[in-house]
């Protein structure tokens, strides 16, 4: 049976994000999965995700790292509690800070692999480190401090 | 006479970037201008640039800061040499690193103002600090280390 992506567990009213919402028809709709202690997301940039000819736009690299790491934070928080991702209460994370080091230009026209690993879980704060690779070569390295979403920001199901 | 945006000086073969290329019909096409010692870019997010309902997707915030800051780096490098941006040789920058602190959720449905200021110019490296504000309130703060593009990456005009 196919493993379900983290983002497929998000309830409908939290599935509109441009980066990872499965209901955003204009968005990137990234999908993240466990691979042992790491998480992985493979993304196929479109030709228009260009920086200069032949290379991927840095904002996309940052966006992939951002959304994959907040998804990883959520998955790790459930795993730390020994819970499935579709159990109540929901745990959803937003980005507190994002750092990306661009190590080499990211080639356009090949799939990109984002791999992440939790560095620290402390209360409502999860620190996640990530790499973005193309054809086995690391092109960017990132770190996201993800923070559990304040309850007042989580929309009621009826609102959306 | 209307001030020309930094990105309008970029030659055609360097104007395909998803974030700031004026020739990328799918892209954000941001426009950056001098405002004294600072630079400013105003951007109107689309409804689909959503994170959770009512708020802007963090990857867009990061992308705006990234492209506005690399544009600022280029403009500052020309200014430091006392040159107009359409004079030869061209100075074009890529992102070495990007850091964004998300201070509060960025509201969706209002224009966003990105303001940047050069912190340091040292050789081929320009450090740029930025804020992103909505309705006068700073929502995110960022820093970009921009690096002058290596000559071998700059495409020949004939290639594109």
Account of the 3D structure:
The structure is a homodimer of 160-residue chains. The first copy, chain A, is α+β, with helices and mostly antiparallel strands and 160 residues long. Chain A contains 1 helix and 6 strands, in the order ββαββββ. A 6-stranded antiparallel β-sheet of chain A has the order 1-2-4-5-6-3, covered by helices on one side. In chain A, strand 4 (112-122) and strand 5 (125-134) form a beta hairpin. The first copy, chain A, is globular. The termini of chain A are far apart. The mean pLDDT of chain A is 93. Chain A binds chain B through residues 13-14, 16-19, 21, 24-27, 46, 48-55, 57-60, 62-63, 66-67, 94-102, 105, 149, 153-155, 159-160, and chain B through 13-14, 16-19, 21, 24-27, 46, 48-55, 57-60, 62-63, 66-67, 94-102, 105, 149, 153-155, 159-160.
Keywords:
homodimer, 160 residues, alpha+beta, six-stranded antiparallel sheet, 6 strands, 32% strand
Question: Which secondary structure elements does this structure contain, and how are they paired or packed?
Answer:
The structure is a homodimer of 160-residue chains.
Chain A: E1 33-35, E2 38-43, H1 58-80, E3 93-102, E4 112-122, E5 125-134, E6 137-148
Antiparallel strand pairs in A: 1-2, 2-4, 3-6, 4-5, 5-6
Gap from first CA to last CA of chain A: 32 Å
Q: Main β-sheet of chain A, in a few words?
A: 6 strands, antiparallel
Question: Count the strands of chain A?
Answer: 6
- What's the tally of helices of chain A? 1
Strand order of the largest sheet of chain A: 1-2-4-5-6-3
Largest interface: A-B, 44 and 44 residues
Unreliable segments of chain A (pLDDT under 50, ≥5 consecutive)? none
The proportion of residues in beta strands of chain A is 25-35%
Give the ordered list of helices and strands of chain A. Answer: EEHEEEE
Radius of gyration of chain A: 15 Å
Structural class based on helices, strands and sheet pairing of chain A: alpha+beta
Instruction: Name the helicity range of chain A.
Output: 10-25%
Note the quaternary state here: homodimer
């Amino acid at each position: 049976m196919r493993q379900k992506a983290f983002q497929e567990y998000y309830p409908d009213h939290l599935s509109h994000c441009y980066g990872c919402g499965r209901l955003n028809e204009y968005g990137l709709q990234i999908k993240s999965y466990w691979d042992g202690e790491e998480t992985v997301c493979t993304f196929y940039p479109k030709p228009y995700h260009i920086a200069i000819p032949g290379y991927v736009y840095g904002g996309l690299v940052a966006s992939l790292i951002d959304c994959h790491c907040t998804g990883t934070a959520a998955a790790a928080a459930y795993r730390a509690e020994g819970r499935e991702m579709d159990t109540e209460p929901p745990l959803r994370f937003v980005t507190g800070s994002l750092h990306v080091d661009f190590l080499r230009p990211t080639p356009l026209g090949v799939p990109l692999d984002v791999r992440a690993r939790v560095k620290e879980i402390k209360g409502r704060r999860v620190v996640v480190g990530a790499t973005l690779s193309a054809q086995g070569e690391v092109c960017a390295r990132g770190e996201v401090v993800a923070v559990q979403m304040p309850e007042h920001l989580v929309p009621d199901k009826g609102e959306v």
